[in-house]
Amino acid sequence: MTPNILICQSERELEAHFADWFIAHVDGKDATTLRSFYESMADVLEFPDSFGYNLDALNDALNDLQWLEDERIVLYFTNTADLISKERDPAKLASVFNMLDATAEDWKWLDDDEITDKKELVVVFEDSPRIQSILEKEQIDFQAMASL
53-78 burial string, b = 16+ CB within 10 Å, else e? Predict the structure, then answer.
């Protein structure tokens, strides 16, 4: 089974593989702190105005997504050397990555009977040594898109 986290070398590679998916693009240069990361996520995924700009609220929103018409969604993070790079506590970044992985996994296991608006969610990071290092340190399974 394909891991929930993929690494790609270029936007062209991503678009070729996920041509008919909704691609929610978060630029790491615009998301260097947790607050700006949450703001970027809220913007690209059109979170409801009630979104709370914290990890619990992000988890809740990503496990819902019923306001999006698209059923297949790619969270695509570019400039990953900058992504949440100004956060002083590295444990917070690890928590975000683990939550993204777990949420993508949760969507795989929902039965169509359990939910009327089932989604497919894939997380794709533009390759950088920093991202691979974090994923390896956190023991989060990932795969290069080129090997799919």
Answer: eeeebbbebbbebeeeeeeebbbbbb
- DSSP H helices in 18-116: 34-44, 55-62, 90-109
* Range in 47-51, 64-68, 80-84, 110-114 the model is least confident about: 110-114
Q: For residue 96, which of 26, 146, 46 has the smallest C-alpha distance? A: 26
112 burial (CB, 10 Å; 0-12 / 13-18 / 19+) is exposed
pTM of structure: 0.93
The Cβ of residue 11 has, within 10 Å, a number of other Cβ atoms equal to 14
Residue reference for tokens 């683990």: 98
| Alpha carbon distance 109, 117 (integer Å) | 13
First to last CA, the chain: 11
